[in-house]
Structure formats: C-alpha cells, structure tokens
Specification:
alpha/beta; 45% helix; elongated
C-alpha cells in the first residue's frame, strides 16, 4: 500500500482476474475501496486526451456501479469542471476527498493509452502521487496493468528508449511486476481441483505433457484442459494422448489467443527478434534490438530476454504454421501417396518430391516470404507439415545462434504382429550463406549429436545454398551419402 506499481504479462494470462479478485478482497477487508477500471475503450480516442479523460471517467463510474458499493464509497455524481488535461487527476482528487476509505485504483489495459493521451494521464497520476505526502487527497496505491513493462511506457510516452529517464511521466513506480507462468506442480494442483470436483483424473503423463507443451503459459494450460473436457468430451481418465490431440485441435482452430499471436508476427519489432531465432542466426545487438527483445518477451513469445528461444513448443509449432501458410498452398502432392504398404512413411520419396517443389516454387516463395532470413526453413516446414501432419507429427527445435533447425518426424503405424509402433526420422536444416564455408562438416557433427540424443542410427541433412554463386534453381537438388563423426549414415540433400 502507498506505492504505485506496474503489473505486466502477455495477453490472457489471468491479469484481469487477479486484479478483480484482489480488488474484491481488499474492499471486503473494510479499510480500502479498491477498484479495477479498464482503459480499453480509450484506444479509439488516440491523442485526444480530453476525449480519453471522458471515456476513462465513464469507465470508472461504470465499474463503481457494477461493484455494488454503498453510496458513501462512490465518487461524486458529477466530475469537477476543469481544463482538459487535468480532469482525470481532479476527479480522483475529489473522489478521494469524499471517500471515507483509502482508494486503490487498478488501471487495466493501460496499453490502450497512446501518445499525448498516455503522457497526460501518467503525468496527472505522477503529480497526484508526489503531492500526497502534504495531505493531498489522491489514491493510496495505483497499479498500471498491461502487456508491456515500464521501459515500453517510457518509449510510448516520448521518453526515449536509451537508459534511465528521470523525466518520464511515470518514474514513480516502486516495482514492475511480471505475472509468471505456472510451474509443473501448480498445473497438477489446478487440474487436481477438477478431479476433486468431478472425479475425472488427469494422469501424471497428461500433466507432464501439458507442462512440456506449454511451459506453464496460463491460457494454454487452461485451453488444453477445456479442449479435452468440453470439446473432446473425454469421459474417463485424461492421458497424454488426449493432451496431444487437444494441442492439434487448438492449433488447427487458431483459437483467439493463437490468432492474436499471428497478428503480432507481422510487426517489424517482432520480426526483427523472431526471424533470427527461426533461422538460427545471431541477431544484431544494439540498443534498439534490446528494446525489441524486451517487447517480444513482454508479449510472451520468447522465454527470456537473455535466452532467445521461443517460449514453448506450442508457440514453436504455431509460428512455422502461421508463417508457412502461403507456401503450404503451393503443395499439391497427395499426403496419402507417401504411406508405404506396410504403413510406414516414405521419407526418401518426400525428399525427392521436395526437390521438384523447390525447383519450381522456391525462388518465388523466397521473394514473397516476409521473414527472408528464415525463408528456407519456413518453406520446408510448410512442405513437411502438409504431407506429414495428416497421420504423423513434427517436432521442431531451434534457437538463435545455433545455425540450424532440428526436425523430428513421428509417424505411428501398425507392425506385422499388430503392435502399435512409431517411425522416427530426424532431419537437420542448414543454410549456406554468402561469405561462409560449406556448412556440411558442422552439420554432420551437429546432426550426430541430435541422433545420439534420439538414439537413431541415421538421419537427413538438408543444406540450402543461398550464396550468389549457387547453382541455377533448375539444377539444385543433389543427393549424397555421408557419415557422421561417429559413423552414422546420413543422407545429404543440397538445394
């Protein structure tokens, strides 16, 4: 209490629920009148800070009406008539002067404030905060809740992006808090509440698979459970296979959360961070890039600002599917034709078909692809997804600086004795860029370690030649056999 905070987290991680619950509990204790006010509707007003103040005060009054508070806690029926640009602060001052309790204000969706409007509202909060110690009536505590950290509020407020900025309209924050993801134990506890209420159990395997796929991202954790229980209507114990099916259904349906993710990918700041992660290259390291990393981290797309990895396996999958949509429309081969008579997947034929596809469409698709740095990886992943995901699954591993993309094809089939088996095929993708040496030696060594981890005897190394002196497109697609440092057999495809 008596401090001002920033609370930030990616969308649909439970921020609003936390604020509403906290406001209700604080008010019920009797010493505080705590209120959550959404700033969402002010976005349409843009830089018109007078209109923003009016909309924000309308939202505040509506929130009070919905709270069911007694008359003595409510703000006055009319707000003070003052100059636009000071109305919000004056209204809070008048409310706090009349209220018999200390006022605590949670401003949700604060990201809706833009430009001069953000400067105006934050400056009024700062002014009121600094006067409180002289008996000035003003909220005892304010929480700004949104998507971004304080660094981005400063940028949006014209405070610049380099270093500390004491002139920022909101340099009074005691602490910036980030709402974290669930731990594995917390997921088990959450799902355990469902078991207690209904008797339906999430197996240990299911809980572990949920944590593995989501890394605790709250919306995904809840969405997977909802998909299994409500949409798939599983009646018995929930297993890892049910979770896997739910994941596929969520991705195919492009649920609201994942659709919002898709929209973010086309933002230049996001592409600048995500493209080198997908390509496995080292990004530029300058102050502007550091700010972009913080922004992308606050969106929840990457795990941390130091470790440039996609936040969880579901996002890793979604990124390639979203960005590969255009390329996938060019794939005309019939997925069923790649299934062998014994039920296994015909990977050698898939590679041959990809060569034909690459010669015909690769040059055009690379020019069209927005993420040029990762274009080769995106196009091959789109081809694989179109032909594998009908009956099998793709697992992808990639991170900035690795100079590769690892892929595992998992294809279930029935063995001659009727046993359910899984065919596994490992691939590694490398890009030969201008001024670099042939990546084949490094690729063989890296693939060797990947195969060792998967306990597989053979694999595939695909090398995309992006050098200016590369062979003409119609001549690309040579196959050769090679051995890894430990003697594993590898098919090398150069395109």
């Amino acid at each position: 209490m008596d401090r001002y905070f920033v609370l930030h987290a990616p969308r649909q991680t439970g921020k609003t629920t936390v604020l509403d619950t906290l406001a209700s509990e604080l008010t019920a204790e009797g010493a505080v009148a705590a209120l959550t006010v959404s700033c969402e509707r002010v976005k349409a007003a843009g830089d018109d800070y007078g209109a923003v103040e009016s909309l924000l005060l309308d939202s505040l009054r509506e929130a009070v009406d919905l709270s069911g508070w007694p008359k003595k806690l409510r703000p006055p029926r009319s707000w003070p008539r003052v100059t636009p640009g000071s109305r919000f602060g004056a209204a809070l001052r008048e409310w706090c002067r009349r209220c018999p309790r200390r006022v605590v204000l949670f401003l949700d969706e604060i990201d809706a404030l833009q430009g001069n409007s953000m400067v105006s509202i934050l400056s009024q909060l700062r002014d009121g905060h600094n006067k409180r110690h002289n008996g000035y009536p003003f909220p005892a505590s304010v929480v700004l809740c949104g998507l971004r950290d304080l660094r981005d509020y400063k940028v949006a407020s014209g405070g610049g992006s380099e270093g500390s900025n004491p002139a920022s309209p909101f340099n009074i924050v005691a602490e910036s808090l980030r709402l974290g993801d669930f731990t594995a134990d917390e997921i088990a506890e959450l799902y355990g509440q469902h078991t207690e209420a209904t008797g339906q159990e999430f197996t240990k395997e299911a809980v572990e698979r949920v944590f593995e796929l989501t890394q605790g991202q709250p919306w995904l954790v809840n969405a997977l459970a909802r998909e299994v229980i409500t949409k798939m209507r599983v009646s018995g114990s929930i297993t890892g296979d049910h979770v896997e099916e739910a994941k596929e259904r969520l991705i195919r349906a492009r649920a609201t959360h994942l659709d919002a993710l898709a929209a973010r990918l086309r933002e230049p700041r996001v592409e600048r961070v995500i493209a080198p992660i997908m390509a496995g290259t080292w990004p530029h390291t300058d102050t502007a890039f550091d700010d972009d990393v913080s922004y992308v981290h606050d969106l929840g797309l990457i795990r941390s600002t130091r470790d440039l990895k996609i936040a969880n396996p579901i996002y890793r999958e979604v990124l390639f599917r979203i960005l590969g949509d255009r390329a996938e429309r060019f794939v005309r081969a019939d997925p069923h034709s790649f299934v062998l008579p014994d039920g296994r997947f015909d990977l050698p034929r898939l590679l041959e078909e990809f060569v034909v596809f690459w010669r015909e469409h690769g040059e055009v698709l690379i020019r069209q692809e927005g993420y040029h740095e990762a274009a080769c990886q995106i196009i091959l992943m789109a081809f694989l997804h179109r032909l594998v995901n009908g009956g099998g699954q793709l697992d992808r591993e990639y991170a900035a600086g690795t100079k590769r993309l690892d892929v595992l094809v998992r294809w279930p089939y029935t063995g001659p004795d009727g046993d359910r088996l899984v065919q596994r095929e490992a691939m590694e993708l490398k890009v030969w860029r201008a001024g670099e040496n042939d990546p084949m030696p490094d690729g063989l060594a890296q693939l060797d370690r990947y195969l060792d981890r998967l306990t597989l005897p053979a694999g595939v190394l695909v090398i995309f030649d992006r050098r200016p002196e590369a062979p003409p497109w119609k001549e690309r697609g040579g196959f050769e056999q090679a051995a890894t440092p430990s003697g594993r057999q590898v098919t090398v495809l150069r395109v």
